[in-house]
Amino acid sequence: MDRHVQSNAGVMNALDLTGRVAIITGGAGLLGEQHAEAIAEMGGIPVLLDVDGARAERTAGRVADRFGVRSLGLATNITRPEAVSEALRQTLDAFGRVDILINNAANNPKVEDGMNGSRWSRLENFPLHVWHDDIAVGLTGAFLCSKIFGAEMARRGRGVILSIASDLALIAPDQRIYRQPGLPEDEQFVKPVTYSVVKTALLGLTRYLATYWAEQGVRANAITLGGVYNSQDEAFVQRLTSLIPLGRMAHLGEYKAAVAFLVSDASSYMTGANLVIDGGRTAW
């Protein structure tokens, strides 16, 4: 079991991540950079994995410059076990340890991406190759990273795995918010089935990991996030926010403190849990 946590540690000490190395998948994406900033602000070392290696390096550089920490960006296809193993090797060569894994990578088409040729998103037409691709990135990638990085943490006797879920892991998409006036029903864009399936499955993976490596001091939790403002269509935002008790989407940096809490010793007695931060949407 993890004997490193001191029960009388102060709050700030419990949140301190100085020297801890955090792997972040999908690290060059919108939320990936936010997660990296949360790690860096508390003194940790973010390692950003992304299929776009150049973008991962640029993002890692921005984070390092802003917070004065070491950081690393690696080109990694997390659907390939050999690529994940190579990322582990490179991380250990650079920093000698892995303390945290954030399973963040997922395929998530934007509403505006579906405005042209949107029929593909509908369940009746959903392409098998898109199903395979989405499952590979969002779920198989999380499994492989948990397996490979988690085994290293278990070997060392401590670590944290955090999986980034969604309110759509708890509720079905309300397809009405994606509707576009003037389009026939069979041409309306819908939230693809794979997003709900992947995010729901991450909750099951979290519970499995939490009990599997508990004796090795590895904790596993999930965080369920609501939608984030990101220059979406105004009509879409209005429809979505009408479903949220707080009456708005999340601001970009609004999840950072929760991520820091979940990957630090501040949550030392928390494992197998799902922290819901969705403005109250799933309460209705």
Please give the structural blueprint.
Layout: H1 11-15, E1 21-25, H2 30-41, E2 45-50, H3 53-67, E3 72-75, H4 81-95, E4 100-103, H5 128-156, E5 159-166, H6 193-212, E6 218-225, H7 234-241, H8 256-263, E7 274-277
Parallel strand pairs: 1-2, 1-4, 2-3, 4-5, 5-6, 6-7
Helix pairs in contact: 2-3, 2-8, 4-5, 5-6
Description:
With 284 residues, the protein is α/β, with parallel strands linked by helices. It has one domain: NAD(P)-binding Rossmann-like Domain (Rossmann fold). 39% of the residues lie in helices and 14% in strands. It has 8 helices and 7 strands; from the N terminus they run αβαβαβαβαβαβααβ. The protein has helices spanning 11-15, 30-41, 53-67, 81-95, 128-156, 193-212, 234-241, 256-263; strands at residues 21-25, 45-50, 72-75, 100-103, 159-166, 218-225, 274-277. It has a 7-stranded parallel β-sheet with strand order 3-2-1-4-5-6-7, with helices on both faces. Helix 4 packs parallel to helix 5 (128-156). The longest helix is centred in the middle third of the chain and has 29 residues, at 128-156. The radius of gyration is 19 Å and the shape is globular. 41% of the residues are buried. The model has no long low-confidence stretch (mean pLDDT 94).
